[in-house]
Each structure stands twice: as structure tokens, then as C-alpha cells.
Amino acid sequence: MNPFSLTGRTALVTGANTGIGQAIAVALGQAGAYVICAGRSSCDETVAQIGQAETLHLDLADPMAMGAVFADRRVDILVNNAGIIRRNDSVDFTEADWDDVLNVNLKAVFFGCQAFAKAALKDDRAAKIVNIASLLSFQGGIRVPSYTASKHGVAGLTKLLANEWAAQGINVNAIAPGYIETNNTEALRADTDRNKAILDRIPAGRWGAPEDIAQTAVFLASPAANYIHGAIINVDGGWLAR
């Protein structure tokens, strides 16, 4: 048996329409999983790359939106990738920008995990949860207070849920991406000075690719990671080791 195979498993990936989420969904499909590609905008492009997949409209601005998803379908792997960010000086940060980010990045993650685990525990079956954390699960950043708080929360929540569910056959782990080449970082990469400063800090000497995160997600979702619980894996080219 190939310990990295996901054949016969069904995965749900949030924010699967583009970037890291899309790469994770495609990689899970390549590993053999049937993939439910969830997003608030169309995931048809992602589904077309996978084949054995479907799209699911899911707007996590309502943090309880995932509550009913697992009632009528078996899902073995949940990847909580969807997230948003708001930028402003902390003295000017609004309650709306705080609540919007925490709702999507943390509250929806917890209640999505809860709904997923309830279904798995009811059926007494093994399952895998992979949360997407951040370098700002460990660092403070600047001008992103709600994002930093939410990603610190994701790291803590990952450990807590692992403590509660590991003995019941549910693995809960997280990936903390470094600086990855996506649409969200295009402006940073286009800024010559900022791009150089970032690259000078990365021991690997390059920006990460979405596929770097995707293959780590496949590993954590696979039988090869059965004894990994509560881990937060930095996929950052060595950024935090610097």
C-alpha cells in the first residue's frame, strides 16, 4: 500500500478557486482523492484541472456556513484554507475589519472543524483536518491586527483540537506558509526593494510556489502522517530559522 495515496478518500478544500487553495485541491486529486472545491466564487477552473471533483458555493463570511455541509455527504479530509486580510494602522482599525477577518479566518475554521468532526465521530471513522496558518501565527507583522490575531488563533486551535480528537482517530494539523507566489503577493514581488528584502531573509533564496504548500497538505492528509497530531509545519524556505 502506498502510504501517500488518497485513493477512495473525499476531501473538501475551502478557498479552492485560486492560489494555494487551488494548488492543494489539485494535488489532493492527483493523489487519488475526490475533491469538493469550495469557495464563494466559482471553482470551475479548479474542478476542470482535477476531473474527479465538484464545486460547492460556500461563503464563510457566514462563519456557520459549513455547519450543514457534512450532514448528507461523507468527507474524510477537511482543508481550511479560505482566509481574508484587512490592513490599517492599529489606532485606526475598525470593528468591522476586526470582525470580518476573525469570522472567516477563525470562527468559521472552528465551527467547520466542529461540524466535520461530529460527522466523523458519529460514524466512528478516521479523518484528517489540515488548517492553513501563517508566519503570523508566530510573528506580529505590521498593520494587520485582526489577521495576526486570527492566525495565532488557528495555531492554538489546531493544538487544542488535536488534544481532544487524536485518540478518536482525527488528525488535526496545520501548515504555516511563507512568502508564496500568488495573486495576493504580486504587489510585493513587483516592488523591487521589498522583494529584495524578502528574498534576502529567505535561506532558500526564492519565493515559495503554491505547490510547495500543496504537497505538504497531501502528506498531512495521507496515512503517512497518521501519528502527527497538533503540528504546525512551516513551509517557508527557512524564513523562521533565519
Q: What is the top-level CATH class? A: Alpha Beta
SSE order? EHEHEEHEHEHHHE
Count of beta strands: 7
The total domain count is: 1
**Can you name the CATH architecture?**
3-Layer(aba) Sandwich
Largest sheet, if any?
A: 7 strands, parallel
Ranges where pLDDT stays below 50 over 5 or more residues in a row are none
Beta-strand portion reads 15-25%
Helix content: 25-40%
Provide a count of the helices: 7
Shape: globular
Q: Distance between the terminal alpha carbons, to the nearest Å?
A: 38 Å
Radius of gyration: 17 Å
| Name of the CATH superfamily | NAD(P)-binding Rossmann-like Domain
Mean pLDDT: 96
CATH names the topology as: Rossmann fold
Walk me through this protein's architecture:
With 242 residues, this protein is of the alpha/beta class. The chain has one domain (10-235): Rossmann fold (3-Layer(aba) Sandwich), CATH 3.40.50. The chain is built from seven helices and seven strands. Strands 3-2-1-4-5-6-7 form a seven-stranded parallel sheet, sandwiched between helices. β1 (10-14), α1 (19-30) and β2 form a beta-alpha-beta unit. α1 crosses α7 (210-221). The protein is globular. The termini are far apart.
